Protein 1
Amino acid sequence: MSNDVMPPGGRASRRGESPARGRKKERRRRSGLKITLLVLLVLLLAAGGTAYWMYRDLDNNITGVDINKALGEDRPEKLPTTGQNLLVLGSDSRAGAENQELGGGGAVSGARSDTALVVHIPEGRTQAVAVSIPRDTLVTRPECAKADGSTMASAERVMFNSVYSQVGPACVVKTVEKMSGVRIDHYLEINFAGFKDLVDAIGGVTVKVDEPIKDKASGLDLTAGTHKLDGTESLAFVRTRHGIGDGSDLGRIGLQQQFLLALLTEIKSQDLLGSPATTYKIAKSATKSLTTDDGLASLTSLSEFARSMNGVDPSAMETIMLPVAYDKQDPNRVVAADPQAGELWKAIRTDGTIPESAKKSPATGG
């Protein structure tokens, strides 16, 4: 790679620009990294190199899904502002040998949405909120079109994470829209192997646990204290549930939020945007397992989206778990808790301030 590779963002420094001004602009660019893992991936892709062969290599890695065609016209209205809503899924797909080797994957068929986040970026794009949807949440799955053209009838009391395996990603988007009334503008998914490779590419992530965690199902075995996790260990960390709290998905969401902050801290400390070669390596590992809606399924589209996020203030980032209550018929499942959940979704639909009451969940997983 030549020494005159353009800096992240695709703009060369202006001749005569003062070092102080340059450093200030660089800090503003880097601040976008701290919003969510989603934005991290987008920014890394945008900074992946300018050589044509690099662009083509990364661009061809991205898989696109035509969500709009699959969902049709019966959808919530778009925000009346320039705000954006994105659905981010971490998929436990068992396709391919590498995925099957992770987390006991060989014993499980199909795929499920192991992690789900609705990321809302209000008008002005200076703050963001990520709403975690517990995978054990019982929902009403709407009627959805399957990949073979047939139709899957609507069903009540379906586990949220099963929708992906039953009908596919478009139906997950439709389910989220029906349960929330929130229009999803974009969709991103990364599978197990991609998550593992991403962590390994940055050299691991450091986390601190207050109590020992031992979970035979995920393979996680940590003593209390500080640990630097590699890709496989990190995957076990964000998947574990039996070794913490009440063994439900609710305790795991807390670990996922903790890991996200640790991951972003690690990336900031390494100054990855200052190293195009390292950034390209990470972008390549991410795009190999990245699926997006057609609107983001190219480096050009991802880059444009990334540039629009540069004004996000990391101090305004907030991560919330969808307020849920234990199901009265099955205590191993949860349901959306009202009025809290309704208040939360209303605030996102209207680009409004989320009330404190909408951030409290009756079921905590403790």
Protein 2
Amino acid sequence: MTPTLVRQHLAHTGETPRVDPGARARDWSEIQERMLVPLYEAVYERLKVGHGTRLLGLGCGSGLALLMAASRGAAVTGVDASRPERLALARERLLPEAWGTHPRGDTRLVEGTPQDAADAETPAYTLVTAFEPIGCLAGDSEGLGELLRAATPLAERGAPVVLAGWGPPERCTTSSVLRVATKLADPLRGTGSWRPALRDDLEEVAQRAGLKPDGSGRVACPFGYADLDSAVKGLLSTGLFDAAISATDQAQVDKEVAEALHPYQRRDRTVWMPNVFRYLIARVP
């Protein structure tokens, strides 16, 4: 929930959520994506990201984490196979030809898999990131191990690979709002149901991908919104509520999410929800 929340996993019903992907992508980039900035900053500071860093961002979305790394001097490549609307916004940020400026020659964005970003002229990456947090929905790490196994051959031996996840539910007030998605999507429950984060979620994914854990950390990432409407739009932009929208309707989901947010609305009408996220640093063998 994040500036990112979690990867989008819809229940397997064959139905397409009744949402506007373009509007959701814009809400993500303008409202929700910034919520994990403290996580990005903590990781980049710990790993001394800067000139000489060659970063591969998996599931890069609309590219805020890449932009932050590039501002430190890193050469960045982002890949995303499932969200073309977000990737289009990343191109506006990182490859802004439309604004009459020149894109950096060491910035690449690829719609596809890590293999689609590989070529003989690209040097090995010194850092791989998968910042979209897991540990919130049942099955939300499915596919991540395969993605990591595809990416690690493109990285230097010993290069760090960073995974992110939700902290304990008692440290994440947003957990209570996420349960609304499970309740409304009850007829579709399965891979889209809420579950509390487990202590070893990240380590298990890393080990399945053949990576060696080598340190971790926790970062406070409060979700703060200007008002209730912004909070609803931001949270819905994550995709976590799409199954609920398919099972009910947009108005019902908006109403119940807004009601769940009331305990976190302050006197000045802003919404504030403290959360803790965890990151794991693993190494390419």
